[in-house]
Design a protein that fits this description.
Shape: globular
Number of domains: 1
Bound molecules: MU-OXO-diiron, calcium ion
Oligomer: single chain
Number of strands: 30
Strand content: 25-35%
Distance between the termini: 42 Å
Radius of gyration: 23 Å
Helix content: 10-25%
Number of helices: 13
Largest sheet: 9 strands, antiparallel
Length: 633
């Protein structure tokens, strides 16, 4: 593996925040507890907060359906001894099926998988780098209505055998996608670009119990060259226009996701910087402050797109500002294959991990988002009004509202700091809200947000607790209350509860789990990333990084009452386990393996039989409980 290609793996690991926002340094001392229990006296809405010896009790969490004395996780776990090797392991109480590997046709009858793919075939095939995804049930009532978790639960039992699966294709190494480390032509670049983006497929459970893709009016690939449009406060900004007037195209490095109450999919652009470089005028190109804050560099991560596609050449004056068109949350209608994807600028421009939507006070939508880089921040967006009324008035709820960034205080309280141009400190730096949003990270630096240990996924539990994975940060040299490990090699999970049903500006928080504490036990995990809180009080945790105790990356289920952890699934050597989508009855779970074997056939050929030759392929797993029960139980 060359140094350039190695950067694919390191893309989250650099530090671009030099703002020195280290608000805790002066208040910390060497005796700081690694577990910050709720010590705040903040009179937040969550009046059940009681300082206590157990963080679970501190949150007053009783579990929505917890049965006295009975664990929420009762399956037989995958053991340390089993959770490794070139093929997956699953709890003996569960089984899995492989679905939509990279390169399969989008619909029956499409171009069949062959390796390496042509650009034209890849455009009509499942992409690579399977990541965040949502299952949208096809059922009359679901299509009419509301996809908030609340309504989703109300419709349990509907649309459990048929739906649209919207799935992100985050990235694929050139060596895997092209069969070579560096593109040799624009055609090679197009193949790589078509392997990125999003797929929307229609899937159906067959009579034999297997899920399959079916023909669909609305199945589609959205990739790096698909026309898109901008909406929200920055939509008409000059910062999003190029001198040659090319229309906005594409989405890239689609990491985690979200879904809205109105039934659309949100795909999030994470390490977009790595696809740009400076080639044709590189002698005169210098990185601006904005470029540096977002990690742009002369060679990018080694994809080489900028060498053959001028759009990705930072030094090409015709395409000035093209880079500002990435780093957004993009809304896709999974039920309309003709819809033009919309980049929602009100949600800010960061390295978006995900966009977790919940409905808060006064029916306003709230979107929680992590910016996955060492020492970057956690954000939330609150819509200006009731989302139903806004839509009835022709206003998109994701276009008007307030974006906030989180500041975690040492005493277990926190504040959401509004990123608005009426703040004099921000008005002194930015001409208008559009510029502020285009360079959201710099605005957050100015306000003194709390630098975190790589914020990944966020999930909202039914009792309103919000959980966020902080995957790791090996470069942290000083602990603070919210990031209590220095260095933080293995990550942790933080939890908070907002005032005013997610819409307020204050919160109380604690540390839910520290990964290192599990090492050497059967509960061992590191590098938490994917995250989902189910309606019963279980937390599904996926990992992406070097696991300890000999494990491959994994899917764990945690009882949030007791913090008991059980291992449901382990992937294959060299992969990451990511993506969580579930049917309304919670009897079918979809997860993904990404970059199995890191693309090396001598490590694994999964999902093909182990033949030492066939390239391993990213794919989805359909997981069911053998007794037909709720997943995680
Ligand atoms: Fe794409 Fe931060 O994981
Ligand atoms: Ca991730
Ligand atoms: Ca990750």
């Amino acid at each position: 593996m060359t140094d350039e290609i190695q950067k694919f793996d390191d893309s989250d690991d650099t530090v671009t925040n030099s703002s020195n926002n280290r608000p805790f340094e002066e208040v910390l001392n060497a005796n700081l507890s690694r577990r910050s229990v709720m010590r705040g006296s903040l009179a937040v809405a969550a009046t059940s907060f009681v300082a206590g010896s157990s963080t679970a009790n501190a949150f007053g969490w009783s579990g929505l359906k917890s049965r006295r004395g009975r664990s929420l996780v009762n399956f037989t776990p995958v053991t340390l001894a089993e959770g490794n090797g070139p093929t997956p392991s699953i709890s003996p109480d569960y089984e899995y099926q492989v679905l939509i590997p990279w390169g399969e046709p989008l619909e029956p009858g499409g171009p069949a998988y062959s390796w390496p793919p042509t650009a034209e075939d890849q455009r009509q095939q499942i992409g690579i780098g399977h990541d965040g995804m949502t299952f949208f049930p096809i059922d009359r009532r679901m299509q009419e209505g509301d996809y908030s978790d609340r309504l989703f639960r109300k419709h349990w039992g509907q649309g459990n055998r048929h739906g649209m699966l919207a799935i992100n294709h985050e990235f694929g190494r050139n060596s895997t996608v092209l069969g070579k480390d560096f593109p040799e032509s624009l055609d090679d670049v197009r193949t790589s670009q078509h392997a990125h983006g999003v797929a929307v497929v229609e899937i159906k459970k067959q009579r034999n119990g297997e899920w399959q893709q079916v023909e669909s009016e609305n199945a589609r690939r959205i990739h790096v060259n698909t026309p898109v449009r901008f909406s929200g406060p920055a939509a008409s900004s000059e910062l999003l226009k190029t001198p040659n007037g090319n229309i906005p195209l594409g989405t890239v490095n689609n990491c985690s996701n979200g879904h809205t109450p109105w039934g659309t999919y949100l795909t999030c652009e994470e390490n977009f910087n790595g696809y740009f470089g400076a080639t044709h005028n590189k002698a005169t190109w210098t990185a601006t402050e904005e470029h540096e804050r977002y990690g742009f560099s002369e060679n990018g991560f080694g994809y080489g797109w900028h060498v053959f596609d001028r759009r990705f050449d930072l030094s090409d004056p015709d395409y000035k500002n093209e880079e500002n068109r990435f780093g957004w949350v993009v809304e896709i209608d999974p039920f309309d294959g003709t819809q033009v994807p919309v980049k929602r600028t009100a949600l800010g421009r960061i390295k978006h991990e995900g966009a977790t939507v919940t409905v808060g006070k006064d029916n306003r939508v709230v979107v929680y988002m992590g910016d996955d880089q060492r020492f970057d921040y956690i954000y939330k967006f609150v819509s200006a009004g009731d989302w139903v009324e806004m839509r009835a008035n022709g206003v998109d709820p994701l276009d008007e509202g307030t974006l906030y960034v989180a500041k975690f205080n040492e005493d277990g309280t926190g504040e959401w700091l509004p990123l608005t141009i009426d703040n004099p400190a921000l008005a002194a730096r930015f001409a208008d809200q559009a510029e502020l949003l285009t360079f959201t990270r710099i605005a957050a630096d100015i306000l003194g947000a709390t630098p975190m240990d790589r914020p990944e996924w966020v999930t909202v539990a039914p009792n309103s607790d919000v959980y966020c994975t902080l995957t790791n940060n090996s470069r942290r040299t000083e602990a603070d209350a919210a990031n209590p490990m220095a260095p933080n090699a293995d990550g942790h999970i933080i939890r908070w509860r907002d005032t005013e049903e997610h819409t307020g500006t204050n919160f109380a928080w604690d540390i839910f789990l520290i990964a290192q504490d599990t090492h050497g036990t059967e509960e061992s995990f590191s590098d938490p990333d994917g995250l989902w809180a189910d309606p019963d009080g279980r937390l599904f945790v996926q990992t992406d990084g070097g696991q300890k105790d000999g494990l491959n990356n994994q899917l764990l289920v945690v009882d949030t009452n007791t913090k008991e952890i059980r291992r449901l699934f382990t992937g294959v050597t060299g992969d990451e386990i990511t993506g969580l989508a579930i049917t309304p009855d919670r009897r079918t779970l979809f997860i993904n393996t990404q970059h199995p074997g890191n693309g090396d056939p001598s490590v694994t050929n999964f999902p093909a039989p182990q033949d030492g030759v066939t390239v391993p392929r990213d794919c989805t797993f359909v997981i069911t409980r053998k007794n037909g029960g709720v997943i995680g139980s």
